[in-house]
Write the structure tokens for this entry.
Amino acid sequence: MAAELLLRARNISYSSSQKLILDRVSFDLYRGQITTIIGPNGAGKSTLTSIVNGLIDNYSGELERLPGLRIGYLPQKVYVNTLMPLSVERILQLTRSVSGSEVDAALAQAEVGYLKNRQVQSLSEGELKRVLLARTTLGKPDLIVLDEPTAGVDVTGEIKMYELISEFRTQQNCAVLLVSHDLHLVMSKTDQVLCLNQHLCCSGRPESVSQHPEYLALFGAQAADSIAVYSHRHDHVHDVSGQHQDHHHD
């Protein structure tokens, strides 16, 4: 059975202050698939996610969303007022009415249930990103949009975040659209790659995109090993904040 089409973008273009940001970008998003947008700084990646979210509407081209499409969104930068007391539980309840059990389930899915009663300003960057990832799943979204979800997180935290995102996609039966710079980590976790540099340089399965001349020209040496599955083997574990913890055997 074919995957359900959630969103179809055709020839999306956008300019700001006479500067062309996006030039005739086309792609489809399907339920159950992870789509990753990659590209250099200034390529229009965040702008494209804002158009998908409906935050920018003065674009040209056609954008068709499944009627009633529910979207969860994690922006690149989230500013938390450190002077305002705000618990993790409260930040999940700020913009929608959710039950305690829904909060518990979302935090458990992101493996940060133990943070529920902590103050947000006391969290590490890795912990905050996991909490905000949990928040995107409230309301059972059809599509989760994540703009640089691992920014500021160490490599162990990055690997765990991409594992969680992949699990969310399966458990929620949703689509994921994410922006990433972590080519070597994300390539093995994605179904579709959109290589963006204002226009769509190339798109498709990771293995085909990784051989494309424009992809290689943009990313050079980094592109050579980006398709490799990243393995991280060690005899210790890291907690959610990235702190080292030795294994102790009784």
In short: Helices lie at 45-53, 88-93, 100-109, 125-136, 155-172, 183-186, 206-209, 213-224. DSSP finds eight helices and eleven strands in the chain. Residues 34 and 190 are 5 Å apart (CA to CA).
